[in-house]
Amino acid sequence: MAVAALLFAASVTTALGAEIKVLAIGALQPGLARVAEQYKRDTGNDVTIQVGIASQVATRLAAGESADVLIATPDLVEQAIKDGRVAGATAAVIGRIGIGIAVRIGANPPNVATVDAFKRALLAADSIVYNQGSSGLYLEKLFEQMGIGEQIKTRTTRYAGGGEVLDRVLQGKGNDIGLAPITAIKTNESRGLRLVPIPAEVQNYTSYTAVVMTRAQSAEAARDFIRYMTAPAGKQAFAATGVD
Question: Which residue of 57, 108, 138, 195 has the lowest C-beta tally within 10 Å?
Answer without folding.
Answer: 108
